[in-house]
From TrEMBL:
Its cofactor is FAD. SUPFAM superfamilies: Ferredoxin reductase-like, C-terminal NADP-linked domain (SSF52343), Riboflavin synthase domain-like (SSF63380). This is Ferredoxin reductase. Residues 2-103 form the FAD-binding FR-type domain. It holds the Pfam family FAD_binding_6. The keyword Iron applies. InterPro entries: Cbr1-like_FAD-bd_dom, FAD-bd_FR_type, FNR_nucleotide-bd, MRET, OxRdtase_FAD/NAD-bd, Riboflavin_synthase-like_b-brl. The keyword Chloroplast does not apply. Keywords: 2Fe-2S, Iron, Iron-sulfur, Metal-binding.
Amino acid sequence: MSGWQSARLVRRTDLTATGRSLTFAVPRWPGHLAGQHVDVRLTADDGYQAVRSYSLAGPARDGTIELGVEAVPRGEVSPYLADALPLGAQVEVKGPLGGWFVWRPESREPVLLIAGGSGIVPLMAMLRQRQSAQTDTAFTLVYSVRDPEQVWYRAELDRDKTVRTRYVYTRRAPKGEDRPAGRITPQDLDGLLPTEQTRCYVCGPTGFVEHVADLLITAGYPADHIRTERFG
């Protein structure tokens, strides 16, 4: 883990009405594992500082890192990062951080990813790392969102036909969707992957993560094969 480094915003991409992909140039970035995160530090003109943690959304490329940021209403930092930080502006980052919620390409066990809302970000890093490494490790993604407009990285997810992806809509399902809108249920996890070898990664709001972890254990997934990351 490195200390604080200067990071320059070079690209901002809209993912949803409130979700953004932010790419920062960090020339001395040491590299990271899929699933790790960074701390971002902002310093105001009067010296006031604020620090927040954000997940890395993919492998480092050409001295850049990508973060996923949800603009939280009345938030102190996320709305500024998501929409107001000018291109070319500098912030500070520290990382990579975290060694538990990670996936390595040399791992051969099947992988089950379960995301709630913006919790897709570190799981997206795993999906992208898998593709970059050109491994055939079996991956399945269950992605829970309120409605179709809240899906992050939709086009990219739909393009990757080597990953089985199942969307769960909790508030409003699209026309033609057989599953009615509602919270994720045991039926949403039926027939996904062998439970005795599968590694599970769950990320999302605290209540969502606790609910899904309970479902996985009830379904027979070993507790020591379930790794969770939560926020909120």
